[in-house]
TrEMBL record:
Keyword Signal applies: yes
InterPro entries for the chain: Pilus_assmbl_Flp-typ_CpaB, RcpC_dom, SAF
Regions annotated as coiled coil: none
Annotated signal sequence range: 1-18
Domain (SAF): residue spans on this chain: 42-110
Protein name: Pilus assembly protein CpaB
SMART domains assigned to the protein according to its UniProt record, in alphabetical order: SAF (SM00858)
CDD domains (UniProt xref): SAF_CpaB_FlgA_like
One Pfam family named in its UniProt record: SAF
NCBIfam families: pilus_cpaB
Sorted UniProt keywords: Signal
Length: 257
């Protein structure tokens, strides 16, 4: 009987020891997470610091930056395709403003061939300055690189000899190159200039010059969504011939149909 009791006590003590050992053993560590595959990268040419429109590029203005390969778009300059790009673009002018770290695209640069404004003009384009005021430029809110319609306001003698004011649209979708001598588009302030320089086709220059000599030109700011409009010269009907008739001492002007 005593032996049986000792055996039971021994079995119980062994079980208790096993339970204590199991409870104090730390749980196994969780399986290690699988490291993600590295994202393929490319070296893209970017602006090393903010660049204003018209800035002349120097070596220190450009640097290579790692860029996720799957986000590359057409126009990005990569080190694989153009390893000598930083040297090749030295002396080029920026057509637009660049932020630090922004990719540099070839179409946003121009090779300096003269003054800044003449370098910006595409072949066949002309730059013409017209007189403006705050009232004729949307209160001064028209900025360089905005698109505008050009209107002329002029006076004409009515049928009874009285003066009548008329307005007509001369050109549509014209790009503003500068206000006075300002080509900076970064400011949000209004620009109250006395001249606006417009980018015109060669055949539009004579139209603007002639119309400005015979009336007051105004610029109507266009929505950015309408910049793809191809309409340029707006045909205006020629004034109808008129005959002046004195009848009973009263001057009358009659349009000839």
């Amino acid at each position: 009987m005593l032996r049986l009791l000792i055996l039971l006590v021994a079995i119980g003590a062994g079980g208790a020891a096993a339970w204590v050992s199991t409870s104090l053993t730390p749980p196994p560590p969780p399986p290690s997470a699988t490291a993600p595959d590295p994202v393929p990268e490319a070296q893209v040419l970017v602006a090393a610091s903010p660049l204003a429109q018209g800035a002349e590029l120097a070596q220190d203005d450009m640097r290579w930056q790692a860029w996720p390969a799957h986000t590359l778009v057409d126009g990005f300059i990569t080190r694989t395709d153009q390893p000598d790009a930083p040297d090749a673009f030295i002396g080029f002018l920026t057509r637009v403003d660049f932020s630090a770290g922004e990719p540099i695209r070839a179409e946003r640069l121009i090779e300096r061939r003269g003054g800044f404004l003449s370098s910006m003009l595409d072949p066949g384009k002309r730059a013409v300055a017209v007189r403006i005021s705050a009232e004729s430029t949307a209160g001064g809110f028209i900025m360089p690189n905005d698109r505008v319609d050009v209107l002329r306001t002029f006076s004409r003698q009515g049928p009874s000899g009285q003066t009548q004011m008329h307005s007509e649209t001369i050109l549509r979708n014209v790009r503003v190159l500068a206000i006075d001598q300002t080509t900076d588009t970064r400011t949000n302030d209004t620009v109250l200039g006395k001249t606006a320089t417009l980018e015109l086709e060669a055949n539009e220059v004579e139209i603007i010059v002639a119309k400005e000599a015979s009336g007051l030109l105004s610029l109507a700011l266009r929505s950015f969504a309408d910049n793809d409009d191809d309409a340029r010269i707006v045909a205006t009907p020629a004034p109808k011939p008129a005959v002046r008739i004195f009848r009973g001492g009263v001057l009358e002007q009659v349009d000839v149909r």
